[in-house]
Design brief:
alpha/beta, Rossmann fold, N-(1-d-carboxylethyl)-l-norvaline Dehydrogenase, domain 2, Single alpha-helices involved in coiled-coils or other helix-helix interfaces, 3 domains, eight-stranded mixed β-sheet, two-stranded antiparallel sheet, 21 helices, 56% helix, binds 6-phosphogluconic acid, Pgluconate_DH, pentose shunt, phosphogluconate dehydrogenase (decarboxylating) activity, 6-PGluconate_DH-like_C_sf, NADP
Length: 457
């Protein structure tokens, strides 16, 4: 079967090689001829070039494809996706053909494009995670929609995707553009977990005086057990790296954190949908805050060491707190997906979603099995829950900043302790007469519940 792939950047090139290696015949195009030449040379060195046709224009690409056609887009998200879709229409793509947007597109654009192109071709969306390495050897693939063209592609994606216990990490998770929503939330969780690990590092480094290499050892020991995850493993590796002058490599890196936008979209969507994901929002804002600090890493460190208190940590408690906080970051992301699915009627399957995250993606972790057990499982984790509370308290005492750790503790505390919402409702009614509801469900005003009507002026 012939499939076309447009966009031979890092992800496109590696996915192309993966697909060809699995037996697919690929027609590939990139507006930069060097990218095509590079892919061809990689395919030649792997001995698979006979199944690769590099074309120099989209008309030639369309002509070479069997009908109905299948085209994968791996171009940067945004206007370029529409530009390529338009060019493909002009090149001859027609009804019955499928175009799959495999970039990090905003799901709202996906919904709009489905509508826009419905009479031209089938527009489908798929989020891909795992970076270059994943695309080359097995990514996580979060697809969506019920376009007929999927049937032609699914067997290939099931083959190229990562596997976990023999099961593919490709899935059509739900309707419409929900695949891109799921990938967006994947990235929101990714931001939170990265920040949480950075906070563990800082607590161990500044709070207990460990060197980066010693923190690397702590993370390594955690990785050897059920806490093993991709992000923890790479963090341990990064912290163990030293320059030629035996300096920790992390100390040579500027503290300002970049972002391409998917974490921010996650936070924005959660706020719009009214679904609380405080740890995910805190991680986005933590990145923003790094851009307001204008001092080099080493200087900040000296200042921090002067300004903070050392902490007497129990490493087992820290590990438990980290485990519990990590579970809660995933839970918030899943709650967001569930809420969005309900609002948009996407019918997202959370088990399938979790299956796509089990291998190949950036947030893969051995404890995803625990997350699959559902929210009830969290209730059984009294020890880790207590550890999170204690560690969050100690972290605050250190004087350092722990936005994700403390937001996560606040999240679980809010869900599991008496609420104070009644007072806020009363305040709203007091000055705005917005109305309140009593425990028996009766709608009324504060003044209906009391004889006292003197107001504070
Ligand atoms: C992945 C990653 C990948 C990328 C994101 C986040 O799943 O492979 O999430 O998509 O790292 O674009 O990047 P930023 O941190 O720059 O927002």
């Amino acid at each position: 079967m012939q499939v076309a792939l447009v966009g031979l950047g890092v992800m496109g090139k590696n996915l192309a090689l993966n697909l060809i290696e699995q037996g697919m015949t690929l027609v590939a195009y990139d507006k930069n001829p060097d990218a095509g030449a590079e892919l061809l040379s990689c395919a030649q060195s792997l001995g698979i070039a006979e199944r690769l046709h590099i074309v120099s224009d989209l008309a030639d690409m369309v002509k070479r494809l069997d009908t109905p056609r299948s085209v994968l887009l791996l171009v940067p998200a945004g206007e370029l996706v529409d530009k390529v879709c338009q060019d493909l229409i002009e090149a001859g793509v027609e009804k019955g053909d499928i175009i799959v947007d495999c970039g990090n597109s905003n799901y709202k654009d996906g919904i709009a494009r489905k509508l826009k192109y419905q009479n031209k071709f089938e527009f489908a969306t798929m989020g891909i995670s795992g970076g270059a390495e994943g695309a080359r050897h097995g990514p996580a693939m979060m697809a969506s929609g019920s376009e007929g063209g999927w049937e032609r592609l699914i067997p290939w994606f099931e083959k190229v995707a990562a596997t976990h216990n023999g099961e593919s990490c490709f899935a059509r998770v739900g309707q419409s553009a929900s695949g891109h929503f799921v990938k967006m939330v994947h990235n929101g969780i990714e931001y939170a977990l990265m920040q949480l690990i950075a906070e563990m590092y800082q607590l161990l480094r500044i709070g207990t005086g460990r060197t980066p290499a010693q923190v690397a050892e702590v993370f390594k020991s955690w990785s050897e057990g059920p806490l093993n995850s991709y992000l923890l493993a790479i963090s341990s590796h990064i912290l163990s790296l030293e320059s030629d002058n035996s300096e920790a490599v992390v100390d040579l890196i500027d503290n300002k954190v970049g972002a391409k936008g998917t974490g921010l979209w996650t936070a924005q969507n959660a706020l719009e949908l009214g679904i609380a994901v405080p740890s995910l929002v805190a991680a986005v804002q933590a990145r923003h805050l790094t851009n307001t600090i204008d001092t080099p890493a080493a200087k900040e460190m000296t200042y921090a060491q002067r300004a903070t208190n050392s902490v007497d940590l129990d490493l087992d408690e820290l590990k438990d707190a980290f485990y519990f906080a990590s579970l809660l970051c995933y839970r918030q992301g899943l709650a967001l997906i569930k809420g969005a699915s309900r609002s948009h009627q996407w019918k997202v399957d959370l088990d399938k979603t979790l299956q796509t995250w089990r291998a190949g993606c950036i947030i893969r972790a051995d404890y995803l099995d625990d997350i699959a057990k559902g929210v009830e499982f969290l209730d059984t984790l009294e020890g880790p829950a207590n550890a999170l509370r204690k560690i969050a308290g100690q972290a605050i005492q250190s004087g350092l900043a722990f936005p994700v750790l403390t937001s996560t503790q606040t999240y679980i505390a809010t869900l599991s302790t008496p609420s104070n919402g009644h007072l806020v409702q009363a305040q709203r009614d007091y000055f705005g007469e917005h109305g309140i509801k009593t425990h028996s469900g009766e709608s009324c005003h504060l003044t209906d519940l009391t004889e006292i009507d003197a107001k504070v002026r």
